[in-house]
Amino acid sequence: MQTNLEIDLLDQLIDLLQACFSVDEADTALKPLMQQLFPQEVGAIYVISSSQNLVEAIANWGALPLTSDPIFTPDECLSLQRGQAHLVEDTHHGLLCQHVRPDSLAVETLCIPMMAHGETLGVLYIGSLYRGRITEIKPLAETVAKHISLALANLKLRDTLNHLRLRDPLTKLYNRRYLEESLEREIQRSVRQRLSLGLILLHIDCFEDFNNRLGHAAGDLLLREMGLFLPSQIRESDLACRYRGEEFLLLLPEASLETTQQQAEQLRQNIKRLNFEYQGQPLGTLTISGGVVSLSEHGLTAKTLLQAVNAALRQAKEQGCDRIVTLPS
């Protein structure tokens, strides 16, 4: 039977998890509450990575070092393999999970898989230094695991919906809405810290003719390929977005006008080297046109910069395509 203190702490845990907006936010808040719920134990809350091949501790507690590895694979935990709690009442003779450290001081261990909506999200691990303690706290631990599971599932769903809200569904690049938010933020940061900021607007040449000749499925394939190509060509700090139709805008924080021009020219050359095929048929050489501008030289607001980069791209297309144009400063 749970004590009044445990019920109160569980209420706090539920309120806290419902108020969190991300897994990272939940991590910070969970540790002190878990310490109060299980003051005599060491333990950790683990989540399974999106690739499903790693289990990583996001929060741990206890006066002694964690008695389990901070990262392990799902097949190293018997509770994850079996889909049910795994209790070891004697770590010297029981069947231990492989992630429990061999030099561990714990005399008992408990792993509880955290599942919600038919999906396994992680595991709650608890190690006790006192014999008989795990059996006593097991019902509480299972209740805690259930609440954390539901919270993690909701946070994961929220992250997925947020991802969909900010991404273009076809290319998986950021969409225009995210671009506009990011551009405003980067302009403010660049002005405040006196940093450079470059913009490149790219257009797939003759895309309409290509689409009419081979059909929309081939056009969609080409756009998806651009969605894979562009992020591979830029820095982690840069941003690639689908701007509209067959146009893509790249945001290059802390890049000078010269660096931005060089990047745009490199992209133009690299895209011509790609070999695209549709249903086994080569699509021929692909070319792009681009406009380049930078903060200060071409504007200090999102509106003026977007107007300038659109004007630069328009000039590139009017001059015969397959070229990069930079507006005069």
Structure commentary:
With 329 residues, the protein is an alpha+beta fold. 45% of the residues lie in helices and 22% in strands. It has nine helices and 13 strands. It has helices at 4-19, 23-37, 78-82, 133-166, 176-193, 207-214, 216-233, 257-272, 302-318; strands at residues 41-48, 55-61, 71-72, 86-88, 108-116, 119-128, 197-204, 239-244, 247-253, 277-278, 281-282, 288-294, 324-326. The chain has a six-stranded antiparallel β-sheet. It has a five-stranded mixed β-sheet with strand order 8-9-7-12-13, sandwiched between helices. Strand 8 (239-244) and strand 9 form a beta hairpin. Helix 1 packs parallel to helix 4 and helix 6 crosses helix 7. The longest helix is centred in the middle third of the chain and has 34 residues, at 133-166.
